[in-house]
Write a structure and sequence with these properties.
By secondary structure, the protein is mostly helical. The chain is built from four helices and no strands. It is globular, with a radius of gyration of 11 Å. The chain starts with a helix and ends with a helix.
Length: 78
C-alpha cells in the first residue's frame, strides 16, 4: 500500500473529498469536516479496503494521516 493511494481513500470519507487537502503531516482531527461519523467511516474503510479491523483505541493514538497510514499498513501485514 502506498501513502498516496491511502490518502485518496481517506479523502473519500469526507463530505467534500475534492476540497479536502491532505498531506502525510495533516492532523486529520483538525480538518473542519472531521467528526465521529467520519471516524466510523474510516474504521469501515480500513476493514473494507485493507482487510484491517482497526481498534478504536489505536486510532485515537494516531494524530496525522501518516500515523493512520502506518497503523493500518502494519496491521494489514500481520
Amino acid at each position: 500500500m502506498e501513502i498516496t493511494e491511502f490518502m485518496e481513500n481517506f479523502k473519500q470519507q469526507f463530505d467534500d473529498p475534492e476540497s479536502t487537502q491532505l498531506t502525510p503531516e495533516t492532523k486529520f482531527r483538525e480538518i473542519p469536516e472531521w467528526n465521529s461519523l467520519t471516524g466510523l467511516m474510516t474504521l469501515a474503510m480500513a476493514n473494507d479496503s485493507y482487510g484491517v479491523i482497526l481498534p478504536v483505541e489505536k486510532m485515537r493514538e494516531a494524530q496525522t494521516v501518516q500515523d493512520l497510514f502506518d497503523l493500518i499498513n502494519n496491521l494489514s501485514q500481520k
